[in-house]
Request: fold
Amino acid sequence: MTDTPSAESGTLEDVLVVDATTRGPGPYATRVLARLGARVIKVEPPLGDPSRAMPQIFQEFNAGKESVVCALDTAEGRAFARGLAGRAHVFVHSWPAGRAATFGLDAAALAEANPGLVHCTISGYGPGSPLGDRPGQDLSYLAASGALATLYPGEPQIPGIPYGDTLAGTQAATRILAALLRARSTGRGAAIEVSVTAVLAEPARIGRLAAGTPLAAGFANPGKAVYHTADDRRLVVAILDEDAYWAGLCDALGLADVRTLTTAERFADAAALRARVQRALSGMDAAEATRRLGSRALPWAFVEEPGALAFAGGLPLPEDVEPALGEHTAAVHAEFAVRDAPERVWESPR
Amino acid sequence: MANPGTPLEGVVIADHTILGPGPYATELLARLGARVIKLEAPGGDPARRIPGLWNAFNGDKESALCDLRSDEGRALALAVAARADAFVNSWRPGVAERLGLGAPALLALNPAIVHCTLTGFGSTGPLRARPGHELNYLAASGALTGIMGESLDYPGLPIGDTAAGMFAALRIVSAILSARTTGIGGEIEVSVAGVLSEFASIGASADDSIVSAKVVNPAYGVFLTADDRRVVLGVLDEQPFWDALCDALGLENLRPLTPAEYIPRAEELRPLVAAAVGRHTLADLERLFEPHANIPWNTVEAADAVDIPFGVPQAERRPPDLDADGDRIRAEFLA
Reply:
């Protein structure tokens, strides 16, 4: 379908984002905007974003951006940052409450010079939250939101995925673009506040809503479980109340006597049926399991390592690289060091 | 500054999705002010049989019956698509085309439309032909390994549905923004496994660093108090955090250690920190930690235990009954 226009990339090519965030969620939000085509200028303190100390994570969250060093403890640095923000469509920061105002980079101050600006603050616990300005990171926010307790059926563990950073970053990017859509028709920007803990509270709540239903973790359902093969490959089967899938699983594993059980019967005898399924799978290696399960349209999959399979339908990863600290300082200064009234990249209707 | 609450006012979404991630994506758009018209097959979205999830994913929408096997149903689907900013479906590959609702057909009808398809494993790539649920996508993307390690448990919250729903909402808003600027829409696909795969890869990229779940740190992780409450300590290589924690817990002999010293000795030091936490009740700890503003700690809470603003906007209206808005929508679009 080569003549179908694709919205896969380049959709934000005329959008300028000034990004003063550090560490996880903020940089992920602006990284996503960069991958959608926006130009992102990362304004860094002289020592850089602390996550530069973790090069692989820094790369994941910051590739494709321009880096400009800007010392906000100097009048010159503040003036330059305000000048940049005056020309931008989006300004994002992750400073503690009140800090933006001391720099003259809060939403109200920037809106005076640039009324169409979308100003976004990303915080951990959120302003005015019960945990105030206490320091924290992904694990803290997972714990405070209820997501950590909901995630693990038993003892809480440390998840190996920065779910809070990525989910809050995605949510912040969505809110920024929605506000930008409005700004393009009204000429008026917005002040957005996104807290990682508060974003995580939503999946935690949704997880809790599933408690007691067949969707809950730990619900006794022989059709939904993590099993392993004789050669210790883990595989999942995820059959909820679909009787046809259960019959197909029984056919694949040679469990003819239980293939006609109803959903209610399967749930009632879950432990024994799980043991039957596991025994059958313990008698075959991964290749044999693939041969038997794979020939039928069944909801199963091996438990893979990250990146083992390449799936389409995420967000295409451009082959871009993370900027060195201050790599673009001179170029951005040359481009934006305009003394007169800021020139808008696109004009809002009056 | 405009009220940031409903920036998508005036945006119309034709929503043919069912079950998890699709409805969550369109509900997020509805909560931001978009008008979401949920077009349902006879019998309705099967998620209606799971009230908890149905309610979480379908607030602020309008519902109209739309039987795509009938001429009238197809006419309604086309009429809504002709005036919509986005058309969202979660059908298997080929179904939209067979119904005359594929991207080329709808773009011919409405050049600015954003045609979004939600898939599980993706319409191309490995496992594309296999059916699946959340747990399958978690396993195949590497996210299950990332979150649960080697255990045979699985997570109790729908990470895939929420992550893919949020990502799809983002992609749709981005594409509408572009379409409103250029007048040209386009086709996007978001797969649950694809989004999870990105999150899992980001997690794996932390594997060599101190934030890795595979690395033992002396004061990072979940600890138990004397009264069996779980608390999180989040001290990594931050000297001021370490100093404050040692002061608060009376670990004078550990306080002089620098991160370069305490991190390599994690196996030896973590039990000491755990024992110090375990000597105190939660109330004691609160009193001990209170004077130190820079200790990154908190309790492991149940969902909804603490009300924290500035997250995802919430729905104002309950999900619609099946075809609750059908007469009005048919009159409006088929007139």
Q: What stands out?
A: Chain A touches chain B through 136 residues (CB under 8 Å).
